[in-house]
């Protein structure tokens, strides 16, 4: 037997890789995780790039991470704590603001200031979105059935899938009408969807934000309504649609996962970039790393996105041609950037009254859907948005561990930023120009903001690709549109975490149910691996 | 016009002007005859303050009794089941006390200033019980509930908040110790005690100093994620900590209408507080000794880790034969542990010898219909949440 032999190799120590690895280690397998960086976490990291300040460098808030996974992997025991948000606000150029709160009735009261009708429509809207969340929730932890297969597993799976759409009372009384609504919801643009409920521009703009974050769709693009659902289907302790901070930054999530993994005998090797999958007789048998090491295992599970998995570390000769073509056609377009800012104090945002909990969570300044679409138009031309949509938050307002008392860390997510920047692409100078532009945009709403900046990190889609390994810097590892969701994710015929290469699996966000720090792809993939290896499994997730 | 307080329904605590200002929801309830907030803004966020920052709660309505006199130490040792003969000055002890039949009246904390001065804090009113029990002892019992203003300051940043408020070297204070401070010209007693199972303190001062203290603590905790904290959030934290609540997890012996509802310390997980080998006699000793010797304890109070995410409020607990073996007394989905937990009173041997194949029947309300869930339970330690920082010395500081 060659050296470095394990039961399972996981390629990439992102949150899905670590989730899959932890479940497999808990089931008793010998698991090794290979990570290219000298830190772990993929896009769920907390790094101190400026002394005294911790940044959530990539992902910055938590809601999608399945509570069953947190419970099964005992992430609390390994240091994970989620702090719920207090609210969210959109600042307006006329000095006014629009807010949502943790408390539903406070939100209604706040919307009423802008439109009495919208305040009441919000009740109906929340009910309808919640209904969609209820349908999708059980699907998240299912392996999508292969609709073309006649295997009993797939036939029952298809029935199970359909049940959640068609079943009556136990799932909230869905009937024919609601199935139509679901189909419409999955295919509509967020603008069209919101216009069926609301009249005021600010209400629509505030709500539409969730439909464009991370995607290369605009608010008028069909399919953007689903992206909103994707951001709503999470929860914080049963409060569906709520978001929170991971105490100590998003790295706490992956650190806790690593704690669980190690406690169950798993191993993580940093600075070990996998360069290729070693095959023998059409089967994956191991991997080779940049530093010349070789690892062998019964199963190989890739946490890389589908393009990197099959176009970079696997050889084309080992894969069917139509599969390779589908992978090449997989849509994975970078559209977002980020600034992580170390602040010497709390910036004033005069639009939001002091002490208003609306300022405790995400803040924005896009007032109309048209502005948002305009930001998207810039992206289409290969430019960063001149008037961007930003999702900014100051986690240190709630989390005492990100910076010293009185100092603050601000995370600014920016939509839209192209991967392929027009006129010569990204370079250091243009990256800094982009950073300055965003700082200027924020400063329009905060007079003392610039004076408080100690340091900031600028992240463009290019950095996300180079550092984290997300192709084109797409945060979801693939666009969340119907053609790439469920049975079609990552590509039709291969939605069950297995790949055309025997013994090779994929557990990344490129698979069902998709992106976000959810862990579901990792847990689902682990279940399939364990099934194939006849290893018994138990837990709340299954 | 001043109000004639002789017929007022509920009293206001000395912090009322501040707690009512902090309340965004105007939700109050009656605690021991006082109006106090159940919730200030959102219970989840108040709960989070206690596990992430600093939570501040008005504790004034808690029953507080001063016990002074030459026999104070002997009296206290006679009153409670725990051996307090070696209790040191300036320390606090967790205690329970029973009636003559060995049934628990209440739990609480006893503060020792000197062998002639103690303070007892508890949930129920016991002025009468204390006086009756004091027959033959040279002690004076004073009800100081109204004359001492009290705050609970709990959470991971609580030590930093209080240090900033003026409590020098507070980090050196060990759990169950107390220290007197002079802050802004007033005497303030700070004890490292609390009901959240986390790092935390309780602060005791003159009602005249209440408003200033509240204001200054708010200022001190501004950057330390401080938030006022209502009764709902306290209930969440105390279940996680596995603390029992009188008349919730067991019926106080003095309040039980039905004698079969009375519980001995062994039946509510408080056997560790009963020191049968203590030299002197204590109330209930004979009955408890008999119970122990004859092994007649009928029930137990345990922690349950329950499948699923629906809290088992008031659930009946069954064995695998669907026989009723007990009831859930308190339940919640624990936000910090992401676990569905409960405290349950079970009929022995369930919970002691039999810990598997136990089920809770949960009725989950869904828009005017109930979904019946049959959830598997595991008997676990009642102290679900017990972070290292709770007992750490020196206490964690955020500076």
Helix and strand arrangement:
The complex is a heterodimer of chains A (542) and B (399).
Chain A: E1 5-11, H1 15-26, E2 31-34, E3 47-50, E4 53-55, H2 67-72, E5 82-84, E6 87-91, E7 97-101, H3 104-112, H4 116-140, H5 152-166, H6 176-187, H7 190-195, H8 201-212, H9 224-232, E8 235-236, E9 239-240, E10 244-246, H10 251-263, E11 267-269, E12 274-280, E13 283-289, E14 294-302, H11 306-312, H12 321-329, E15 336-343, E16 362-364, H13 369-380, E17 389-393, E18 408-415, H14 428-443, H15 449-452, E19 453-459, H16 461-468, E20 504-506, H17 520-532
Parallel strand pairs in A: 1-2, 1-14, 2-11, 6-16, 14-20
Antiparallel strand pairs in A: 3-4, 5-10, 6-7, 8-9, 12-13, 13-14, 15-18, 15-19, 17-18
Helix pairs in contact in A: 1-10, 1-17, 3-4, 8-9
Chain B: E1 11-12, H1 16-22, E2 27-31, E3 34-39, H2 43-52, E4 54-58, E5 63-68, H3 72-79, E6 91-98, E7 104-114, E8 117-122, H4 127-133, E9 140-143, E10 149-154, H5 158-165, E11 178-183, E12 186-191, E13 200-205, H6 210-220, E14 226-228, H7 231-241, H8 285-294, E15 299-306, E16 316-319, E17 324-334, E18 339-347, E19 358-366, E20 369-380
Parallel strand pairs in B: 1-3, 4-14
Antiparallel strand pairs in B: 2-3, 4-10, 5-8, 5-9, 6-7, 7-8, 10-13, 11-12, 12-13, 15-18, 15-20, 16-17, 16-19, 17-18, 19-20
């Amino acid at each position: 037997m060659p050296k470095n032999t394990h039961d399972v190799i996981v390629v990439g120590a992102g949150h899905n890789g670590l989730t899959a690895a932890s479940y497999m280690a808990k089931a008793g397998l010998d698991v090794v995780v290979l990570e290219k960086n000298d830190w772990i976490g993929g896009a769920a990291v907390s790094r101190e790039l400026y002394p005294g300040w911790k940044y959530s460098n990539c992902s910055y808030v938590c809601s999608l991470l399945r509570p069953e996974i947190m419970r099964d992997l005992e992430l609390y025991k390994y240091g994970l704590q989620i702090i719920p948000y207090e609210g969210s606000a959109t600042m307006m150029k006329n000095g006014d603001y629009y807010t949502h709160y943790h408390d539903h009735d406070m939100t209604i009261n706040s919307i009423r200031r802008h439109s009495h009708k919208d305040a009441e429509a919000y009740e109906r809207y929340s009910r309808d979105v919640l209904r969609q969340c209820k349908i999708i929730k059980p699907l998240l932890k299912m392996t999508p059935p292969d609709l073309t297969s006649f295997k009993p597993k797939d036939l029952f799976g298809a029935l199970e899938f359909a049940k959640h759409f068609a079943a009556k009372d136990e799932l909230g009384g869905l009937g024919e009408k609601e199935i139509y609504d679901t189909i419409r919801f999955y295919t509509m643009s967020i603008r069209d969807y919101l216009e069926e409920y609301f009249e005021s521009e600010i209400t629509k703009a505030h709500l539409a934000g969730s439909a464009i974050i991370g995607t290369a769709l605009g608010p008028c693009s069909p399919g953007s309504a689903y992206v909103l659902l994707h951001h709503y289907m999470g929860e914080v302790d049963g409060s569906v649609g709520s978001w929170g901070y991971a105490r100590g930054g998003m790295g706490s999530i992956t650190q806790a996962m690593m704690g669980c993994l190690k406690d169950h005998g798993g191993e993580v090797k940093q600075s070990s970039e996998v360069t290729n999958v070693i095959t023998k007789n059409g089967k994956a048998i191991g991997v080779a790393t940049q530093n010349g090491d070789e690892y062998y295992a019964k199963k190989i599970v890739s946490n890389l996105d589908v393009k990197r998995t099959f176009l970079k570390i696997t050889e084309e000769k080992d894969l069917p041609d139509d599969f390779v073509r589908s992978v090449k056609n997989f849509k994975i377009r970078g559209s977002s950037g980020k600034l992580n800012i170390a602040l010497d104090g709390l910036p004033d945002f005069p639009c939001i009254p002091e002490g208003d909990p609306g300022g405790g969570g995400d803040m924005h300044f896009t007032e109309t859907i048209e502005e948002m679409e305009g930001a998207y138009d810039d992206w289409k031309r290969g430019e960063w948005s001149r008037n961007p949509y930003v999702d900014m938050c100051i986690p240190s307002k709630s989390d005492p561990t990100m910076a010293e008392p009185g100092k603050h860390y601000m995370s600014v997510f920016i939509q839209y930023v192209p991967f392929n920047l027009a006129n010569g692409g990204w370079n250091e100078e243009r990256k800094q120009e982009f950073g300055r532009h965003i700082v200027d945009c924020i400063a329009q709403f905060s007079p003392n903001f610039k004076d408080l900046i100690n340091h900031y990190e600028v992240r463009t889609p290019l950095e996300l690709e180079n550092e984290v390994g997300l192709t084109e810097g797409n945060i979801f590892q693939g666009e969340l549109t119907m053609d790439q969701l469920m049975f079609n994710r990552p590509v039709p015929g291969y939605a069950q975490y297995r790949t055309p290469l025997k013994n090779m699996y994929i557990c990344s966000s490129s698979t069902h149910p998709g992106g976000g720090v959810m862990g579901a792809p990792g847990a689902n993939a682990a279940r399939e691996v364990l099934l194939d290896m006849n290893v018994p499994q138990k837990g709340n997730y299954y | 016009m001043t109000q004639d307080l002789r017929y007022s329904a509920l009293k206001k605590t000395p912090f009322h002007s501040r707690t009512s200002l902090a309340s965004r929801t105007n939700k109050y309830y009656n605690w021991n005859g006082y109006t106090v907030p159940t919730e200030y803004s959102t219970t989840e966020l108040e709960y989070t303050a206690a596990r992430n920052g600093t939570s501040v709660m008005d504790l004034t309505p808690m029953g507080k009794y001063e016990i002074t006199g030459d026999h104070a130490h002997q009296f206290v040792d006679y009153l409670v089941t725990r051996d307090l003969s070696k209790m040191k000055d300036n320390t606090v002890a967790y205690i329970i006390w029973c009636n003559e039949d060995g049934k628990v009246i209440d739990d609480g904390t006893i503060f020792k200033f000197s062998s002639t001065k103690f303070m007892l804090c508890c949930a129920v009113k016991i002025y009468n019980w204390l006086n009756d029990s004091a027959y033959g002892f040279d002690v004076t019992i004073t009800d100081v509930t109204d004359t001492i203003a009290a705050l609970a300051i709990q959470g991971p940043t609580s030590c930093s908040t209080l240090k900033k408020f003026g409590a020098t070297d507070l980090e050196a204070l060990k759990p169950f110790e107390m220290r007197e401070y002079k802050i802004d010209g007033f005497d303030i007693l700070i004890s490292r005690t609390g009901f959240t199972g986390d790092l935390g303190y309780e602060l005791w001062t003159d009602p005249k100093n209440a408003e200033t203290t509240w204001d200054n603590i708010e200022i001190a905790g501004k950057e330390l994620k401080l938030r006022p904290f209502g009764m709902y959030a306290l209930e969440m934290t105390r279940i996680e900590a596995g603390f029992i609540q009188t008349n919730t997890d067991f019926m106080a012996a003095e309040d039980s209408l039905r004698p079969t509802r009375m519980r001995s310390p062994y039946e509510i997980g408080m056997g560790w507080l009963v020191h049968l080998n203590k030299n002197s006699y204590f109330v209930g000793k004979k009955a408890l000794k008999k119970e122990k010797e004859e092994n007649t304890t009928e029930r137990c109070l345990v922690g349950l880790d329950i499948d699923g995410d629906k809290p088992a409020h008031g659930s009946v607990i069954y064995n695998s034969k669907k026989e009723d073996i007990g009831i859930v007394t308190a339940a919640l989905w624990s936000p910090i542990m992401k676990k569905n937990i409960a405290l349950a009173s079970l009929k022995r041997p369930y919970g002691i010898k039999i810990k598997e194949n136990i089920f809770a029947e949960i009725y989950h309300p869904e828009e005017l219909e109930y979904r019946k869930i049959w959830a598997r339970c595991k008997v676990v330690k009642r102290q679900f949440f017990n972070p290292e920082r709770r007992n750490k010395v020196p206490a964690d500081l955020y500076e």
